[in-house]
Write a structure and sequence with these properties.
- By secondary structure, this protein is of the alpha+beta class.
- Among the domains are: 88-142 and 152-203; 451-566, no CATH class.
- Helices cover 20% and strands 42% of the residues.
- The chain is built from three helices and 28 strands.
- It has helices at residues 2-6, 91-141, 148-203, and strands spanning 10-15, 21-26, 31-41, 44-51, 57-67, 71-81, 205-215, 219-229, 232-243, 248-259, 265-273, 310-311, 344-347, 352-355, 360-362, 369-378, 381-387, 391-401, 411-417, 420-427, 435-450, 454-460, 466-479, 485-492, 502-507, 522-523, 528-535, 539-551.
- The strands form four sheets. Strands 17, 18, 21, 22, 23, 24, 25, 26, 27 and 28 form a ten-stranded mixed β-sheet that branches.
Length: 566
């Protein structure tokens, strides 16, 4: 009898929201969740059923690993639909449903009453109009000479028609407005009732994972069930804090996690991955481009998707948990005044994964939740840049080398100067060891004045006359700081695209045939004249750009601006 009993299947049921989260790996468009199950198995076949899996689950992604003396024989996934049981409906839901039904019935009765009053009003209008027609016909049949009695009757009728018509029209407009509001309220209440019933029907869908274990005896086992869910993502963000006294730039790297998977991740070990699973690993195909004089015919193809219910069978249970208790240990203890914990960085051939040091809870609320990826200090080389034609301001830039182990992904940055917020900006992709420019916003203590452009016209030549226009642009820069600064100034010289138009640079004097010989200032291939200036404290300096444009007098010149990469 004992052997017969041991051959029976033992079933253990677990609810997914109640199983502790071991770890969560968040990608740019999804997440992989790993939950723990601790249970006992008996000799023979054991069924572990994990219920209430989230609706956003990818059923093909379910994987099971574990520790203990047992073998995973089978892993299956099922979607079950059950008829709603009246006993399972909460009293609050039933009360809300009754309230909505009563509200809809009351509104419909009120709507019927207004429509009945509208019918009466329409009859009154018709009666008034018929009476007016009768009065008009009676007047026409009488003598054209109207006596005082007839005039009085007509006048009295017109006043009555005006008063009664005005009252009827006012009442009609009021009833139309009431009816319109009632229709909207009935529609809203009906929509709420439909949504309540639809949600109830949706809640009857059950998503279950069944794990079949075979064991030679009674043992304790720990299982790790992992699955991928959609509607989860993370994006990088940064705080850049420049401390001018120490000459240090602190870069604080954060991850903004958002999820609406339908389940909360409580006290989870988080990993942020730069991989993009949605892109796939297959190399895309490049078709052949064909030109034709006929319009191609497009065909619409339909495809069917089949739901797989069976997941591949796995080998005997192998080590999965990091310790026998199945919990991750804290990576760092706090010593001293509020230190920052380290983040472990794991790199593969195609992606990077950041292990967040502290366990975090991320609810399914569609709100961004910030976690700290890391913080590191760099020694920036500070430099100002101004492009006064576009914006007469001095922008502070830091030339920085990423001396950390982190790959800085493109993201938004908040810039602080000596603990004061100054601006927001964007950061581009930066690999470890790579040098990059970091914008630190506008410094109002460096004043830039872009003075009005001066123009001087003249005509040259006796036979073949040309119009000669001289342009002079002056820029004034004042450093009000108590220390010297380096600033880059960029001004623009027009470039001719027509042989009939000739541009000659007068000031500064540069070798345009051999631009590489120019050092400071110099001219770029985009015809930007660039000065690198060293301004001492409380110093003002003027820079002049002067050039001439020669063209035929009967032709106008038009200036357009194209943006090219420098």
């Amino acid at each position: 009898m004992a052997d017969e009993k041991s051959d029976k299947i033992k079933e253990n049921v677990f609810l997914s929201p109640e199983c502790p989260v071991e770890k969560v790996t968040v990608y740019s468009d999804r997440a992989e969740v790993c939950r723990q199950i601790h249970t006992n198995v008996v000799k023979g076949v054991n069924e572990i059923v994990l219920k209430q899996l989230p609706a956003s689950i990818d059923s093909d992604s379910i994987r099971v690993e574990g520790t203990g003396q047992a073998t995973i024989a089978e892993v299956t996934f099922q979607r079950k639909y059950t008829t709603p049981n009246e006993a399972d409906i909460s009293s609050k839901e039933r009360e809300l449903e009754r309230e909505l039904e009563t509200q809809i019935n009351d509104l419909k009765r009120e709507k019927d009453q207004i429509e009945a009053r509208q019918n009466v009003l329409n009859k009154q209008w018709k009666l008034l109009e018929n009476f007016g027609d009768t009065m008009s016909k009676s007047t026409k049949n009488k003598s054209t000479s109207l006596d005082s009695a007839n005039v009085q009757n007509v006048t009295h009728f017109l006043h009555m028609y005006k008063d009664e018509g005005s009252k009827l029209e006012t009442t009609r407009l009021e009833m139309d407005e009431q009816l319109s509001k009632l229709v909207k309220r009935i529609g809203a209440a009906t929509s709420n009732l439909s949504e309540l019933r639809a949600n109830r029907r949706h809640q009857t869908e059950s998503r279950e994972c069944t794990i079949v274990l075979e064991s030679e005896g009674e043992h304790k086992v720990s299982l790790g069930v992992s699955y991928v869910v959609s509607q989860a993502s993370w994006t990088p963000s940064y705080d850049l804090r420049l401390f001018t006294g120490e000459g240090v730039l602190k870069i604080m790297y954060y991850g903004q996690i958002t999820q609406t998977t339908g389940e909360d991740w409580k006290d989870a070990k988080l990993f942020l991955s730069t991989a993009s699973p949605s892109i796939g690993g297959m190399v895309p195909l490049l078709g052949t481009a064909v030109l034709s004089t006929q319009r191609p015919i497009s065909y619409v193809t339909r495809s069917r998707s089949f739901q797989k219910s069976r997941i591949s069978t796995y080998a005997p249970v192998r080590s999965w948990c990091r310790n026998p208790a199945g919990r991750f240990e804290d990576l760092m203890e706090s010593f001293g005044p509020m230190p920052f914990v380290e983040t472990k960085v794991t790199e593969s051939t195609t992606s990077t994964s950041y292990e967040i040091a502290r366990q975090t809870s991320i609810p399914s609320d569609n709100l961004p939740h910030k976690v700290s990826v890391g913080i590191f200090d760099v020694k920036p080389k500070l430099e100002y840049i101004t492009i006064p034609k576009v914006e007469p301001r001095a922008y502070l830039q830091a030339k920085v080398t990423n001396n950390s182990v982190f790959t800085l992904l493109p993201g938004a940055t908040s810039i602080f100067l000596d603990n004061s917020f100054v601006a927001k900006a964007e950061i581009k992709l930066v690999s470890p060891g790579e040098e990059f420019l970091c914008s630190l916003g506008v410094d109002p203590a460096v004043k830039v004045i872009y003075k009005p452009l001066k123009k001087f016209k003249a005509s040259t030549g006796l036979i073949s006359k040309t119009t000669n226009t001289t342009y002079e642009q002056v820029v004034e820069i004042k450093n009000t700081h108590e220390y010297s600064i380096d600033i880059v100034l960029k001004l623009q010289v027009p470039r001719s695209s027509d042989d009939k138009i000739k541009v000659t640079l007068l000031v500064p004097s540069l070798d345009l045939k051999h631009p590489k010989r120019n050092t400071n200032p110099h001219i770029t291939k985009q015809y930007h004249v660039v000065w690198k200036l060293d301004l001492a404290k409380q110093v003002t300096r003027e820079i002049t750009l002067k050039y001439t444009v020669d063209h035929p007098p009967q032709q106008e010149t038009y200036l357009t601006e194209a943006f090219e990469k420098e």
